Amino acid sequence: MDEKPSFCMVAPDGQVLDRDAVLDHVRASRATSDGDFSISIEDIRAGWQSDDTIVVCYIEAQQRGGKHSRRRSSAVFTTSSSAPNGVEWRHLHETWLQMPED
Fold it and tell me: 56-68, pLDDT tens digit by residue?
């Protein structure tokens, strides 16, 4: 199996999403939020790393439609000469810290 793995995300609710599904979700969130959609990243820490791969851990806070949520995230990045800035995002796993308020 020589094909490089593509991006996937494990969402806080356990769904496994591919790149297109994640992009569609972010675009839909921006389109339906009347400008009230933001994401901020806090407490960024390097995890395990090798010569061409790193795991980055952080807290992601979102605001959408007046509702706030927070999640602990772990992301895997690899070097890639063909990717923008030489880095390719391979995997993202998120766990709820604070679900959106009702």
Answer: 999 999 988 788 9
Cα 32 from Cα 34, distance rounded (Å): 6
Which amino acid would we find at residue 65? G
The CA angle 22-85-21, to the nearest 5 degrees, is: 10
Which residue is associated with the tokens 């806090």? Answer: 42
Q: Is 75 exposed, middle or buried (0-12, 13-18, 19+ CB in 10 A)?
A: buried
Angstrom distances, CA of residue 76 to CA of 50, 59, 79, 92, 100? 11, 15, 10, 7, 25
Q: Model pTM?
A: 0.83
Please state, in angstroms and rounded to a whole number, the distance separating the CA atoms of residues 29 and 8: 19
